Please model this.
Amino acid sequence: MHESAIAKRVLAVVLDRATAERASRVVAVRGRVAESEKLSNESLAFHFAAHALGTIAEGATLELGFTTVRVRCDACGTTYVPEHHVRICPRCNGSDGRLTGEEGVWIEGIDVQ
Model:
């Protein structure tokens, strides 16, 4: 379900930009996603397409690169990928860890007509 929320956010940004440019149609969206959990590119594209139905972004292609943000355990120094945003170190079970990068969604380009 997380992919649906991200797709909805991406679509909102895309529609705002396209409206500001007075576009009649969005053809493609390019960007990247950095998350602390594994996401499905196929699921994100599916949800984007579903949310875009009936908008000027209907039929637009979604081209997003994915990066998984890891966590570094403060207690033992282990770097790991958290499961479902839960930061429990697989080595020492410590719960004090810091993300090694920034999470977020970046829209780098929108092709419009």
